[in-house]
Amino acid sequence: MTNPARDFLAGAELGTRVVVRTRIEGGYTDALGYLRSCDLTHCSVETKRGTVSLALAEVVAAKEVPPPPPPRPRRHVGD
């Protein structure tokens, strides 16, 4: 049986910004970042906190997401 999320990851270009939802004990978790690798069993996503390896067997959803918004300008306190 095919899984659209896994099919998407297998066909996505490396460097694509993605969000990947995986099953964990007690629920689900998301990884948001850049797709760095994908093979038959795992994919790697580079997030703000580092690169995570995700088992494709645990992937329940995945999609491309737009680039992050630009940083907001700092507010000047006391002006």
UniProtKB/TrEMBL annotation:
Pfam families for the chain: SH3_Rv0428c
Location of the Histone acetyltransferase Rv0428c-like SH3 domain: 13-63
Classification via InterPro entries: SH3_Rv0428c
The organism's place on the tree of life at top rank: Bacteria
Name the UniProt record assigns to this protein: Histone acetyltransferase Rv0428c-like SH3 domain-containing protein
Lineage: Bacteria, Bacillati, Actinomycetota, Actinomycetes, Micrococcales
